Structures are given as C-alpha cells and as structure tokens.
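I have a small job for you when you get a moment. Would you make up a two-line entry for one protein for me to read? No commentary is needed, just the two lines. Write everything out right here, beneath this request.
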Amino acid sequence: MIPTVEVTRYVTPLREGGSLPGIVEADDLGTYVCKFRGAGQGLKVLVAEVIVSELARRIGLRTPRLVALDLHPEIARYEADEEVQDLLNASAGLNLGVDFLPGAFGFDTDARTDPEEAATVLWLDSFTANVDRSWKNPNLLVWHGDLWVIDHGASLYFHHGWSGGVSDPARFAQQPWDIGEHVMKDRVDDLPAVDQRISGLLDRDVFVDVLDQVPDAWLEPVPGASTTPDLRSAYVDFLTARLATRAWLPGAPS
C-alpha cells in the first residue's frame, strides 16, 4: 500500500476545484496536497488517483509521490473557516496526500513538450478514459523544467456505475475515447510507437501490483464484489480487458 503518515497541521485550502483540497503538513515533515475522503466526489476519486498515478509512473511519466494521510478529528478544532472545519470533521481516517511541488507552475500553450512524452500522456488518458486534461484544466505542472501529470480523479469512470453491481469489463474495453479537447492532441508525433513501447510494460501482474497500492479503507464493497480482494480483482479485470483492445486509442484499429 502507499505509505501512511499522520497529518500534523492543516495549512490552507486550495480553492481551484469544487472538492476543496488543502495543503497540510505531516509527521514525516512532508507537505502535501490533501484530497479529502469527505469531499462530495467520494472515495472512488481517491482510488482512481492512486491507480492512474501508479500507471503513469510505470509508463515513464513524472507524477508526485502519494501517501495516505491519517487525519484525526482534533485537527478541525484549530480551523476557523466553517466550510473547511466541516470537511475536516467529515474526513477523519485515511485521505490522499499528493506531494506538494513548491514553485511549480501550470502548463500553458507556450510550454515545450517532447513529442514522445506528449504521446505518453495522451496514451495514459485514453487508456484510463480521463475526461479532464483539456486547456480549460490541463492538470499538468512544470517543475524544474520537467512535465508532471496530476489530478487523475476524473479517470476510470466505469466504477461510478457499480452501485448496482460490477458491470461487464468488455464494455469498458471497447469504449472509445474522445481526443477532441485534449491538451496534447496537436503535440503528438508517433502514437503507434509509443503504444508499442507501453504495451510491453503493462500486463495483468502489473495491474495487480497497482491495485495493491490502494488502501483497503477506500474500497467500498458493491454487489458482485463484496470483499476488498474481489473489488481489486474487478479493477484488474477492467484494466486487463482494456489493454487487450485498441478501440479506445485514437487512430488505432479496434
């Protein structure tokens, strides 16, 4: 599992998004962007963050280190903002911590990108069905001259439909992905070559290892997957089925 550290101080909210993440300090002396379990988007967003971040690392992209942040309710007593206080009180337990990159700035139209790196970002987003990497919200940072991918919670939309039971992996495997608004669509050179490279890095065993990084506390049982091992296996099945097709990859035959 991703390492667990304890929150020692809530520093400040980040008000760019609706889920109100915040900067916190932890007992490992690290500073993190905390994504709260009590936010309206729910635990599945945290699960998607871990899965896609781990996949990004394995295919050669930079993404901030993740931890599970153990938040105790007393932290809320020192917060004057009632909205933040309510969120802290609703988020006791394990939350997601994303390593804070001081001095990083947002990716913009003037930023240079290596075509292979751009294609790798596009491949990751198409494989995981990420709908949130447009110029309106690139979810990319530049830190010390390098590109970093962040904020993967809008990926893996299929699990939001599991309230009635785990669905068929084949449906997600064949689901196309729209490149239209993607931030890298005009910066990609040879997507088929990148696809071939990445395909050699991923398989079912890798997906099993990726799912092992997700804390049990974020895996909510659903019909057809009533235990955390069953739920991990369901995610592995969906990722494995997706990898076996190319219906989702822009410009590739199904």
